[in-house]
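Hello K.,

You asked for the raw outputs rather than the summary table, so here they are, unedited. I folded two proteins back to back in the same session to keep the settings identical. This is the first:
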Amino acid sequence: MIGISVALLSGRSVHLQIEAEASVGALVQRAENELQADLRALATPCGRILPRSRRLREAGVQDGDTLSAVLGRRMLVASFGAFALLGADGRVVSWGHPLYGGDSSFVNDELTDVESLWATRHAFAAQRCDGSVVTWGHSKLGGDCSDVKDQLRDVKQIRSYAYTFAAERGDGELVVWGSSFCTGGPIRQQLKEVQQVEVSCNAVAARLLDGSIVTWGHEDFGGDSRAVQSQLVGIIQLRATCGAFAALRFDGNVVAWGDAACGGDATKVCDKLKQVSQLEGCGRGFAAVCGSEGRVVAWGGDCRVPSGLCGVRSLASTLGAFAALCADGHVIVWGDEEAGGSCSVPLLCVQEIKATSAAFAALLSDSRVVAWGAPGSGGDSSCVQQQLYDVDEVQASCYAFVALRADGHVITWGGASYGGDSGSVQEKLASSLCSANKAAGFPLR
């Protein structure tokens, strides 16, 4: 363990004990919790920004060091076909397909003093410092809040439910807009208790605060969970495929329902589904990390797991493939080769994996990024590979990736119309970067 002090410009500071092998990102999270502040980055006394994915030891941080906390961490969110970036100056830049929120030009004058961003699959919502809300994207799927605009005041929190937004006001009232498919029916009166919503092709499942599950929609796609309702207690995680749902209970057991061909029937593997720590859904099947040894058990349409796979820490999935991140940092993939199920380069020293509909991107421990899968969905990053260094964060839409570097630069690749080409907003992104660096006292580059 080493002792590190993290200080704000105001003089307020916190002293933290942390492992030298922990990442800079882990230290940022600890500091944010203790200081109750959003941090953009940590910097050395000489002004060098520390990449979040680096281990503290690798970044040169030593016992007794004092790091400066840079306020106003930028926030990057994704819909299915666009990205939005909240700058440290409180302004927002978005790009990608207009029907997914890629064009915010008509509300640009309102996108100032923004505190946080939220996304549904087709729209974005910005919560401003004065408690008001600004939305854009598909008008029927969360992008138009005009019918409830007068009610959106003193907003304290925004939640997103696939195609719908819900804003909680200071007086406790909940204001909802977007598609009623995800917030109607049996869940309408219980929206405040909803913790998670998952959607199959034609059904919805909601996980409530008490660990129960409520479902609605077409029964062939998981909309009817009555056959397993007595088992749906103490649920801590919920996942969906195209036609089924799977829920992880607090006791490590799994409950599945819906189309058997899409993973709705786990009876053939129920004896193996013990001590499950994570669930992941692919297009037509599920996979689970089981036991202290990190075994992977899969069922449904995409269930051929590589023989002997163990030591798995986490799973990621496209619509046709899985990627397993092992404890030692190497990655094993399987499934449809055209959807990321095959990779021609060694996948070692991986910190995190993100996925589009048909490609993966791995953030490595040296802050570089490796991508593979369908080129049109972000599987080919060769055109920007030389720019993918000192990366702090990677996000994915359905067809593109975006990387946020430690120096604030934004790098995009993949489907051009769905966020993979940020050329039209590079001037705005550069302006946001300059404002952030100036506010932080760093040199403009």
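The second followed immediately with the same parameters:
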Amino acid sequence: MRHHWQKDYPTVPNLTEEQIDENSSLKKMLRLAGGSKKVIDFGCATGYLARLLRARGCEVTGLEINASAAKHAEEFCEQVIVADLDYVSLSEILPNQKFDVAIFGDVLEHLRNPWEVLEEVRSILTEEGYVVASIPNVAHGAVRLAMMQGKFQYEQLGLLDNTHLRFFTRQSVIDLFEQAGYTIETIDRTVMPIFDGNWVPKVRKEDFSPEVVQSIEQQEDSDTFQYIVRAFPLTEAGRFFALESKFYRLEEQYEQLQDELKQTKWELASRQPEVNQLQEQLHHAQEQLRQTQEDATQLYQQSQSQLEQVKAALQKTIAELEQARIQHEEVEFDREVLRFRAERFQAKLAKVRQRFKATQAQLQESRGRVEAMETSKFWKLRAKWFGLKHRLGLKGD
């Protein structure tokens, strides 16, 4: 037995079926399994699915590789067999037993030869029996993007669980069951976001071009986390029950659609007055919109005319301002010339004043000398001499 396979199972809370998320493979498998069935649960773990099946009136036999987990599952199963499907024969461990449903909840990918196991399961199914399985999708967008970066990193749990031996896409799931002798009646799925999803490789959107991200997101099953399958053996009875199941399911869908159609028609009829009122309001709103558009057009034209006038006035003002600027510069130049001339005049005036003061000083000095001479004896004799000459009629000095 492969002891490395016996890892710890994640804890599953004791929820009722109603409390389980609609996107859970557990809930989808429960619905496909049905109620009041004799079920063989391959890989029953701690019995959390068996507990929910028992609540549906099912009688469950469990098969588990992990002895510790199998011990817990005994509380919810009629019988729990500890065995490794890669090394045992179902006819040996389940002699003379038949089951209505064989469930493989994320188990087939752990087997070396899931084709052989599925073929052998056909021998333990009742005439109306079928297989329900959940299988991880290796073509999930996160795996594709990680591989574009050259990464294929195994983890303890999730899509790249380090105990997975086989990897499947939608087509290879179909091939698996067809090659094992089954016809798939239902193929459902659970979804997980490409970015920031649990149990998928961690990739960052910003590490890829928008074109690459868009291309991956638009591909089929890029957000498919698991495929949920119900398959019937390819016997006459199996084909019949598969077709019958499809027929009843389609009939239920048809009736549901009919009910929805009736409800929709009733809602449309009941809302016709409201629709008429809304149409009138729409017509009124359209008329208001038309009038508003006309007013807006007229206002726009008026605004354009006013704008042209403002532009013309602005250009005129700019020209006047330019002329005033030139005149101001000319006045400033004239003032500068006058200031320069005034400074020169002030300098000349200062020199004239200095000369005038010097002349006054010289004149004052001369007057002083004259007054001194007039009071001297020489000056008096000179005056008398000139007076005598005048009387005598003499000329010359």
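The beta strands are 38-42, 59-64, 79-82, 99-105, 125-136, 182-191, 224-233.

Happy to rerun anything if the numbers look odd on your end.

Regards,
P.
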